[in-house]
Amino acid sequence: MKPPKPQPGLPTRKQILDFIANSADPAGKREIARAFGLKGQEKIQLKALLKDMAEEGLIDGKRTAYHRMGGVPKVTVLRVVEIEDGEAIAIPDGWTPDDATPPPRLRLREDRKGSALRSGDRVLARTEETGSGWIAHPMKKLPAMADQVMGVVEIDKSGKGWLAPVDKRVRNSSPIADLGGAEQGQLVLAEPAGRSPRSGVKVTAVLGDPLAPKAFSLIAINKHGIPFAFAPETLEEGKLAAGLPLSEDRREDLRALPIVAIDPSDARDHDDAIWAEPDGKGGFRALIAIADVSFYVRPGSALDREARKRGNSVYFPDRVVPMLPEVLSADVCSLRAGEDRAAMACHLEIAADGKVTSWRFSRAIVRIQEVIAYEEAQRRIDAGEAADNLVNLWAAWRALETARQNRDPLDLDLPERRVLLDDQGKIREIALRERLDAHRVVEDFMIAANVAAAKALESKVTPVVYRIHEPPNREKLVALKDYLATFDRKLSLGQVITPGLFNRMLKDVADESEKALIMEAVLRSQTQAYYGPRNAGHFGLALGSYAHFTSPIRRYADLLVHRALVDGFGLEQPAPKGDLPAASGLSDRDRADLTRVSEAISAAERRAMEAERETIDRYVAAWLSSRVGEVFDCRITGVQRFGLFATIIGLGGDGLVPVSVLGDERFFHDEKAQVLEGEQSGDRFALGMILRLRLAEANPLTGALKFEPEHAEGRIEPRGKPLPLHKKGKHFTGKRGRPGNIRHQGRKR
What CATH number labels 628-737? Predict the structure, then answer.
């Protein structure tokens, strides 16, 4: 229904408010005068009337666009301030009525076909007020006002300042128009100095020494927009939640059990602990105790909103950006030895063949007997010095391992880099983390509990946030099939593709170099795991139902699973006193639909993984910066038309070998076989081959490494079968470091 057409003459206050509320365009003084047909003296009277209405608190804004006080113009510019469950939350751009009036928060109903909005984006939007709050419909995305960038100040010989990027994807430095007091070599934040790129940037904040302790993680936090600081409201609520008393009469008392937590020696929190004993029938009774975070972090609370926004904790070598305030994550929720703690307990019955025959869940009080590092637990077992609780855990694990082997999950031996720092935050060592049986023990107990949680919720027809890993799609399988053909190996796409199929394929490869090649190819064929409410199984683990239950301190997905268990099994505790919400189960919104929050936490996980990986790259580059010129044994991990990607064996530093340094000839790129081959020399560079490479560059700020062959012509130590030469592809030259003519043959891609 359209609003009535305004009648000529000076309007009343109500008419003005109605016009502003229903106008499809910004309603300023000029638009109001035109709508009511005002002229001459009436315009002067309108100006006075609008001033009175503003002083009375009826309207707010400027002469070009008024809106009802506390409201929002019908069409206005909004600024995105956060992403909540994948939905953009915005406020009116430049909102400054007064400090006591918070800006209205609008949910942006984005067009799914449009580009996703991020924090800081500006949009022109049409707004409307509903019974559940303000919503907005974006009309178009506006240019950013002042995007902040991070970089390092460099002063050239003429005294001009340049901002060197800390992102290795950005190749060029930017001229600095205003140093803002920054000096040579300092890490700074800057923003555009004008609308044109030629205007350069101006420094807005000096962060200090880019190579100082914690600078590398600070770069990643800033680049990826990871929420870092907790609001005072959240911290205060964390203290309030930490003081909640445990109701012993409403919890199962498990304090007498010798439960142990086995964790990394540098673990910052302990959210899981395990126990097992023989059941007298050849099997075992087992307990997986998980921190009862849902008791402290309740839906709708400030703690919950912040945890939901973060999605997960982010772990860097020098710091952790926690999902929850430290009073919870490192104290009250952490399962410390010798202290009473609230736990969500998963009780399992394990048969002799490792199959879990029954499970139940309870809220409990536990008192961890000991927190043991992986290495120490393994040492005690190997030395025969382990107490009964560890001996029983290893025995129960061997049963679980039998079931795992029968299930035949994907078995890829992927090394993990570990950065060790000294007390001053400087790099002490970078090495590959050793894989022990102690790691497998904890991992298999956690998998068993995760499966039990998913199946338990299914039995109650309760919403589940599944951890989903779908099978490889046909496109990736076709690419893998074509690649394996270069080794004279076949992959039939007509059969059922299982993890065991890949395991048997790798087991049949005797040559270690060839095995590394095929393992890399199998890894590339896999899909990325994600969270979702519709079960599609976990391909890699060869499981039909799988959920994350064991790490609620650091993953919001696990917290949602705990809340669903509270609902499904009637585990609600007495309502807390004070300002905290009463319920600790799922919120009505999540109970109705878990899709949006699942998408949001999946995106947060990808963001965290990228930030963590980039930070490790920077530490590795810093570690290697003093070893430029040394020669290393490296394995080729990627082949592209512009060069090779190689990894230092035993360290994991990844870098580029540009095609320009491989030789003064054209190089043929076979995309299917992952090979670069010299057209005249026949020198071949293939995925997985071992090279002796000299480290030519190590940039700690970007994490970028560059290599060159040990000798001018390069020296390769190939192992296994030689790769066949394919005649279709692309040719490149490395002469004088410039790309030559690119000749495309065959069908265009």
Answer: 2.40.50.140
Q: Does the 149-210 domain belong in CATH 2.40.50?
A: yes
CB atoms within 10 A of CB 249: 7
CA–CA separation, 614 and 616 (whole Å): 5
Neighbour count for residue 383 (Cβ, 10 Å): 8
As to burial, measured by CB atoms within 10 angstroms (0-12 exposed, 13-18 middle, 19+ buried), residue 81 is middle
pLDDT in tens, 569-626: 999 988 787 788 889 999 999 999 999 899 999 989 999 999 999 999 999 999 898 8
Q: How far apart are CA 333 and CA 554, in angstroms?
A: 11
Is domain 75-142 classified as CATH 2.40.50.140? Answer: yes
Q: Which residues pair with 691 in a beta bridge?
A: 634, 716
What are 622-655's pLDDT values in tens digits?
989 889 889 999 988 888 888 999 989 877 778 9
CA-CA distances (angstroms) from residue 98 to 103, 263, 307, 501, 713? 9, 50, 29, 66, 70
Among candidates 502, 485, 335, which has minimal Cα distance to 409? 502
Query: Which phi and psi angles does 137 have, rounded to 5°?
Result: -115, 110
Per-residue pLDDT band for 132 (boundaries 50, 70, 90) equals: low
CATH 3.30.750 assigned to 13-68: no
Structure tokens at 26: 């910004």
Residue 42 CA to residue 706 CA, distance in Å, equals: 73
